[in-house]
Specification:
Blueprint lengths: L1 H28 L3 H9 L16 H11 L5 E7 L6 E5 L2 E5 L6 E4 L2 H16 L7 H26 L6 H8 L7 H25 L2 H4 L1 H10 L21 H5 L19 H11 L5 E5 L8 E6 L9 E6 L6 E6 L5 H13 L5 H49 L1
Antiparallel strand pairs: 1-2, 1-5, 2-3, 3-4, 5-6, 6-7, 7-8
Helix pairs in contact: 1-4, 1-5, 1-13, 5-7, 7-13, 9-12
């Protein structure tokens, strides 16, 4: 049985090895994407002109951007309490930085870094494919991810020594720098596999609902809920983590009572102030502006780092009446949606904050080494098999000649 499991492990790793290597390497590059973008966006030009200067109302910020970019339609704005962080206004695929205290438009926010991360993300999800071919490429990454899960689950069975001795355990738990060739690859493959197996199982398994509808439906069925229709619900945005079913209002409603408001609250400024009062000690607020000027306005309010849905609230305000039509937190979502959202942000480690991201990044780097050494060991095995076959052929030829 151990031999059968070994060949399944080896075959799955070789078949999907190149895609696994690519996804792991790009995963490492994306580890601190949000922190790097936030750090890059900060600039002295976004600082307040004087200490304790108040931020401008959101309508003034939007007016300044519309004056500088009259041809673009504003779709969202994000304001952070972090010192030196500009307000970020979204126009199509562009992100415009604005001084939140003076209204000065600073231009595109970290355009080269954002372009680089978009390219890395495209390789991570779709092998860099553009257009209709993305669906086919996504199938390749999905099945490679599933094969990788098989490889990871079989790994501990093969790596655990048959005889538990101190020497055997040290051989699979400590890296050795004095080895070369096959012995080095074997040591690195076993040791890194042992140390990375737990986070890799979580990272790889949590990616399945994003790749396969059956895996996505399984999360909802585990929670005793009917899975959403294919292509509609259960798709969690990779940027903000809000599901499309949340936008349609299919989740469980918050226990917070719906508020009434007067006519003054129908302005964006008043709605923004309400969002600020809605959550104490917020760190950032994002407002999504729909194309329809009469449609409700949705605010996403974060108390933690971006990527921690358990510290996020969503507030939807009816623009025509000023009423809070929906107030939702992670806790008020249905269990199925919480599982789906957890899977999305457990995949990147963001659910657990900066420590989780770091562990996920290290595990992804370990997966790069695992794939490299695994393929190297497979090639060495194939080369040794060919040599044995040639030697047998020579011996048979000599025997026949004699």
């Amino acid at each position: 049985m151990r031999s059968v499991l070994f060949w399944i492990h080896l075959t799955a790793g070789v078949v999907a090895g190149l895609v696994i290597l690519l996804m792991s390497a790009t995963g490492v590059l994306l580890t601190y994407e949000k922190q790097m973008l936030a750090w890059s966006d900060r600039t002295p030009a976004a600082a307040p002109p004087v200490a304790d200067a108040p931020r401008l109302p959101v309508e003034e910020l939007l007016a300044a951007v519309r004056a500088a970019e009259p041809s673009g339609a504003v779709t969202g704005v994000t304001v952070s309490v972090v010192d030196g962080a500009p307000a970020l206004v979204t126009i199509g695929q562009r992100t415009i930085a604005v001084n939140a205290y003076t209204g000065a438009v600073l231009g595109d926010a970290s355009p080269q870094l954002r372009t680089s991360f978009r390219a890395v993300t495209a390789w991570h999800r779709w092998l860099g494919v553009e257009g209709p071919g993305r669906q086919v490429a996504r199938a390749f990454t999905g099945w490679a991810n599933l094969l990788f899960l098989v490889v990871i689950l079989l790994g501990p069975i093969l790596w655990i020594p048959r005889i538990w001795t101190g020497a055997q355990l040290r051989a699979v738990t400590f890296l050795r720098s004095d080895l070369r060739g096959k012995a080095r690859d074997f040591n690195w493959h076993n040791v890194i596999g042992i140390w990375c197996v737990v986070p890799l199982i979580l990272i790889v398994a949590s990616a399945l609902p994003m790749s396969f509808q059956w895996a996505n439906a399984a999360l909802y069925r585990m929670a005793g809920e009917a899975p959403p229709e294919a292509g509609r619900g259960a798709q969690v945005s990779p940027r903000d983590g809000t599901g499309s079913d949340a936008r349609r209002g299919n989740g469980r409603r918050s226990e917070r009572p719906v508020e009434r408001a007067d006519a003054a609250s129908q302005t964006l400024n008043a709605m923004w102030q309400r969002a600020e009062r809605h959550v104490e000690k917020w760190r950032s607020i994002s407002m999504r502006l729909p194309n329809d000027p009469t449609a409700p306005v949705t605010f996403t309010i974060d108390r933690g780092t971006v990527g921690q849905p358990q510290l996020r609230s969503t507030l939807t305000i009816d623009r025509s009446t000023g009423d809070v039509s929906r107030s939702e937190t992670f806790e008020t979502q249905t269990l199925g949606r919480r599982l789906r959202t957890f899977a999305r942000f457990a995949h990147t480690g963001e659910f657990f904050g900066i420590a989780g991201q770091t562990i996920a990044g290290l595990a992804s780097a370990g997966a790069v080494v695992l794939t490299w050494t695994g393929v190297a060991l497979a090639l060495r095995r194939f080369s040794a098999w060919r040599k044995r076959r040639r030697d047998r052929t020579v011996v048979l030829a000599q025997t026949s000649a004699a």
